[in-house]
Amino acid sequence: MYRQGDVLIVELEESAVPAHLLGAPGEPRDGRGRLVLALGEVTGHAHAVQGPGRLMREAGVFGPMLLHLPEGGRVVHEEHAVIPLPRGWFRVVRQREYAPGAVRVVAD
Predict the structure, then answer these.
(1) What is the pTM of this model?
(2) Do 105 and 61 touch, CB atoms closer than 8 A?
(3) How does 52-80 read in b/e, with b if 16+ C-beta sit within 10 Å?
(4) For 67, which of 33, 74, 89, 90 could close a Cys bridge (C-beta 3.0–4.6 Å)?
């Protein structure tokens, strides 16, 4: 398990990955070639992965994100230490918070 700020990254066995995501093309990369896991709304900083791989998002704001890194990768952020990740599959979980009347993803 890995954590960088409000992003939690949990290793998964490939057998736990839904079949419809195994061949999914994944999210586009940002202008710097990174897979963005979370973008800071205030600072513009991003929790992002460098290296070959795919990031797949299920529908909805709380839908799970799955990350596939066939060669491993690195999680980077302008205000945090780099986290090396081994090759494999990962579930990416954004921290949530309760506000009266709503549950929302934590804003950076």
Answers:
(1) 0.81
(2) yes
(3) ebbbbeeeeeeeebbbbbeeebebbbeee
(4) 90
